[in-house]
Amino acid sequence: MHSGVKIQEAFTSLQAFFPGLQVEIGDIDAANISHRAFFSVWDRFGLLPERYLYNSEQVHPTMKYYPLRPELAESTLWLFLGTRDPYYQQVVGRRLVNSLNRHARVDTGGFAAIHDVETMEKENHQQSFFLSETLKYLYLLYNDSFLSNSTYDYVFTTEGHPFPIVPDIRGDAFPFIDQQLPPRYRAWCQSPEHANTAILGTHCSCLDLMICPAWAEVNPGQPLQADVESVCHVSDEFEASACKRPGDCGVDSATCRERLCSSDGFCYTP
């Protein structure tokens, strides 16, 4: 991190979400290139190892497992939806499904994580995300009527759960506008131009303003003051965001709700 020297050049299976992200921003050509790189590793081994050292073209010696992760199937779905290219159904999707059936299916029912993609040794468990994500994305790759025929647009959580964007959500841009912050927190929110803090303390959070309070004692014995730092929502008064009392934790940046201090000394939003 300090020198910029590369320690290990590798693909990890979790990174296979990235082509889907490239689709979302409209960079289809780059998404296709990224996707083909990940899919080539799947095609070589039959499944996607957790980590692949692409310079030496071998699986990481201690990370040969495939726990039925969904990221490559997810990117395949978004590329198909973005291009309608049958390649993603007829070639990629078919190989993903066939490989899972060939290597991960259990005779007594269900699927098992793979301990080693070189030997296809199975483990004795099936992660829940295989059901909520991997199978869901593969299903939608061949039948997206759930999305295309719906009255609403959908947002998928990181665990593959679809949430409809109903009119109530679209129409309420400031759902917390009527919630007042405790008076002692109003001074925390300062804009880079030092705008009126009264409006910042009512319904605008530090995240909204892309600022963060960094507390510093200017003169011995003088009250602490807040300076603009970066976007966050935890006071920097204590190392590692540890707290001793609720007043140390500030306000949640997304909801403007007052945060509390747990018995273990960590801030949380109730």
Q: Please, could you describe this protein's structure?
A:
It is built from nine helices and eleven strands. The strands form five sheets. It has a three-stranded antiparallel β-sheet, with no helix packed on it. A two-stranded antiparallel ribbon has the order 4-5. The protein has a two-stranded antiparallel ribbon with strand order 6-7. A hairpin with a 5-residue loop joins strand 6 and strand 7. The protein is α+β, with helices and mostly antiparallel strands and 270 residues long. Helix 2 crosses helix 3. The two termini are 34 Å apart. The chain has two domains: 159 residues, no CATH class; 86 residues, no CATH class. 27% of the residues are buried. Helix content is 32%, strand content 11%. About 21% of the residues have low confidence.
What's the overall average pLDDT, rounded? 77
How many domain modules?
Answer: 2
Structural class of the helices, strands and pairings?
alpha+beta
- What is the gyration radius calculated from CA atoms? 24 Å
**Main pleated sheet:** 3 strands, antiparallel
- Tell me the series of helices and strands, N- to C-terminal: EHHEEHHEEHHEEHHHEEEE
Q: How many helix segments?
A: 9
In the predicted model, the low-confidence regions spanning at least 5 consecutive residues are 172-176, 183-204, 206-219, 223-238
- The spatial strand order of the largest sheet comes to 1-2-3
Oligomer: single chain
Number of strands: 11
